[in-house]
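Lecture notes, continued. The same structure-token format from the folding unit now serves as the input rather than the output. Read the line below as a description of shape only.
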């Protein structure tokens, strides 16, 4: 699906999908031209990403701030402004997660991409016309719609690490456990294999050089 004014698919990216470097890089590459979807996030989500980068991944203040700054600069239209108190009207979702659904509603998101499925009951999201995707299901869905574009973008990501398409090998692009990328890489492997990459949260990419 290539975006046009009449055909635009938007996905709200939860903080947990934006923290791991390889996964975040892949998701944002898919939003670059030719864009397959429109990414969305809020100040609260980006604030949570920055906090986790510092507290759990031990990035410095400058590194964490640079990651967020580059994301904002690359996709200024992704920011959804959520008025204070708006999320309080979201029912059936845990209080700490309502801001995510609120941002998705205001941003007119078609889906929320998150690793925390249990925090977002599908029946509640359905009331707002929003689907729930894990990074795996989202990437596999995009791969089925646009396999050649996906492969080109993943090849470009691997090339940053000095890698290349493996050709006759399968499932070569190895994702860090928990990144939520294994399934789509398996599908991609069926199309000739992807370049092998060691998925380090501190690795370089098109957007980040932490």
């Amino acid at each position: 699906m290539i975006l046009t004014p009449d055909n635009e698919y938007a996905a709200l990216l939860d903080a947990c999908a934006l923290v791991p470097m390889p996964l975040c890089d892949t998701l944002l590459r898919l939003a670059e031209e030719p864009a397959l979807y429109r990414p969305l996030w809020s100040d609260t989500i980006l604030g949570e990403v920055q906090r986790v980068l510092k507290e759990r991944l031990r990035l410095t203040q400058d590194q964490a701030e640079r990651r967020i700054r580059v994301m904002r600069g690359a996709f200024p239209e992704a920011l959804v402004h959520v008025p204070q108190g708006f999320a309080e009207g979201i029912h059936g979702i845990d209080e700490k997660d309502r801001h995510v659904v609120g941002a998705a509603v205001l941003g007119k998101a078609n889906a929320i991409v998150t690793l925390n499925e249990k925090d977002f009951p599908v029946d509640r999201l359905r009331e707002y016309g929003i689907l729930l995707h894990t990074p795996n299901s989202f990437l596999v869905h995009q791969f089925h719609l646009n396999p050649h574009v996906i492969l080109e973008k993943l090849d470009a990501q691997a090339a940053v690490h000095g890698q290349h398409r493996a050709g006759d090998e399968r499932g070569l692009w190895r994702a860090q456990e928990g990144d939520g990328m294994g399934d789509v890489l398996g599908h991609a492997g069926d199309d000739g294999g992807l370049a092998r990459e060691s998925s380090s949260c501190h690795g370089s990419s098109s957007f980040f050089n932490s």
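Point for the exam: Confidence is low (pLDDT under 50) at residues 166-180, 187-205.
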